[in-house]
Amino acid sequence: QVQLVESGGGSVQAGGSLRLSCKFSGDTIRRYCLTWFRQSPGKEREGVAAIDSDTSKSYADAVKGRFTVTRDNADKTLILQMNNLQPEDTALYYCAAALSPECYSERLRGQGTQVTVST
After folding, report:
1. Are 78 and 34 in contact (CB under 8 A)?
2. Average pLDDT, stretch 76-84?
3. Which of 48, 62, 74, 109 is 20 to 30 A from 88 (CA-CA)?
């Protein structure tokens, strides 16, 4: 059974950085497209970034140039490096997995980690 566990959230000031991690277990990670989503009160869920099994990447327009998604298959870890954070990035961030090439799917997801950005 696939499990996803996020870590690395916290509180930062605008302009700061955070690095989120998502530990994958329970199957062969290479088979999966991995996606970061975020959800904040009053807003729709948003797919932030995805990285497929062939390491191709995609990003939401709101984070392009500031966020970078990577994966370490040997370590079974998904990473989201977030730079130049802004208050509008405040949200619960969670990772999700689906069999490649299905990206931006929440078939399997973690509980999330909170990111709060203050002015």
Report:
1. yes
2. 98
3. 109
